[in-house]
TrEMBL record:
BP GO annotations: glycolipid biosynthetic process
GO cellular component entries: plasma membrane
Cellular localisation: Cell inner membrane
Record protein name field: KDO2-lipid IV(A) lauroyltransferase
Gene Ontology terms, MF aspect: acyltransferase activity
TM ranges: 20-39
Amino acid sequence: MAKKSTLNKSIIHFISPKYWLTWLAMGIAYLLSFLPWSIQKKLGETLGKAHYSLSKNRRHICNVNLRLCFPDMSDAARKKLAKAHFESMGIGVFEMFATWFQDRSKTISKVSFHDQDVIEKALAKGKGCIIIGAHFSSIDLCGTHMARYIDVHPIYKLQRNPIMNWVMERQRKNIFTKTIERRNVRGVMTSLKENKAVWYAVDQDYGRKNSVFAPFYGHQCATISHISRLAKTTKAAILLYDYGRTDKGYFLSLQELEDYPTGDEVLDATKINKLIEAQIEPKKEQYFWTHRRFKTQEIPGAPTPYDK
């Protein structure tokens, strides 16, 4: 199914019987979002355990990634990490429901934001800023809370399911003053010219066309090069965004990158990947290990590590 924005469509477009099961699932998600968080967290962990047991393909992708990135880790330790990852992702699903269906004030007390003055200094230059980060399982909830402090315009990727898009796009529109579909380059440029902050998650494989190859945990992977060119063209400040789940709640953190861009896209990509590795280390289980990070190979047509 083609990925298309649903922002300009009313609910009338999605009342066909073929969507009823999806709407039922959304209704259940809505009701679950009212449960005490301790119960939702347990349900998320249970969902993750079920996904680990039932999703052979995702489990395979996760295991391949962990084997590549942590070759010195024992098989038992990697299996334990994989299970913890799936549980973390399950919790992330319920955090997503909370951002869609509940007021974010319910989780304000659980969130701490470090170094938020960095954004004020960056925007004082008048060129806008580009916030870059990685995909961790709490991306939706932490992103929602970032919007409490920063007028940030997130770059998002459309989903294949039109009902998911319909709900997601509308809820994000209520949270953020502007959202930008990732193919909308003009929208990004407009936001930066207006001295706004745009937010990219830069750690996924978007193919050969818009990427350079740089090491990630010692293996070459396709890393988007668009950020280097965008920063060079616009003179926007580049901020590194870290976030995640802790024992006490959630944390958000920003730091401005110095000497970026360098003029060398491979060097820039290498720097970003190393910074993301450093973010992953203290919370390995929260990273998106079920994404095929090494899918695009440097040699066209070469087999991928995910091939069976």
